[in-house]
TrEMBL record:
<dbReference type="InterPro" id="IPR001585">
    <property type="entry name" value="TAL/FSA"/>
</dbReference>
<protein>
    <submittedName>
        <fullName>Transaldolase family protein</fullName>
    </submittedName>
</protein>
<dbReference type="InterPro" id="IPR033919">
    <property type="entry name" value="TSA/FSA_arc/bac"/>
</dbReference>
<dbReference type="Pfam" id="PF00923">
    <property type="entry name" value="TAL_FSA"/>
</dbReference>
<keyword id="KW-0704">Schiff base</keyword>
<dbReference type="InterPro" id="IPR018225">
    <property type="entry name" value="Transaldolase_AS"/>
</dbReference>
<dbReference type="InterPro" id="IPR013785">
    <property type="entry name" value="Aldolase_TIM"/>
</dbReference>
Amino acid sequence: MKIWLDTIDIDAIRKAQAMGVLAGVTTNPSILATANREVEAVLGEILDAQAGPLAAQVVSRELDGMLAQARRLAAISPRMVVKIPAVGEGYRAMSILEREGIATLATTIFETRQLALAALAGASYAAPYVNRIELSTGNAFEVVESSQRLLDAYGYRTAILAAAIKTVDQFLRCARIGVAAVTLPVNVFQQLYASSEDIEQSLRKFDAAWQSNGLTRDAALFQE
């Protein structure tokens, strides 16, 4: 399972990229609206900060508007992925854009039926909103699991990019289901590599044993 970050925090993006665990970055209108800079500059900086895809969402609800915005976003970089709401004309937009070679991500998914239609339309990715589904109906992981089974059964190329992940447990449950990727807010990503008292206690024991023996403590191989 791949990890994308859902953020415009450049420092966090660069750190994840340096760790070697970052597959891509997602944004949405709410996230981009928090920036005090032109959208084009923010997207360009994110592309420079990491080597993977970058997803940005259209804001039009009309077909012509979605297509025009999507094409402009795609022209920024071949690594752009265009997020399209999985409702109404969104499916038609996904189908047209994918045929043009523009990668799309079906977003705002709350039900398996939305993901099924997105797969039929040829979307590259589909993003069920895990935590929001859980708060709404309490069956988020049933939706994710049934969606993954559907994709597997029919061999659709659409990959699930589980979104709105709010806890490490939700991350792990998505991993156990076998989805292709998750997109995480920075705080949840940080929790994945955070230490704990058990970890620190084990490291202290290793250090104490090492320092107790002069031959290991002074070994040239391990000098900083």
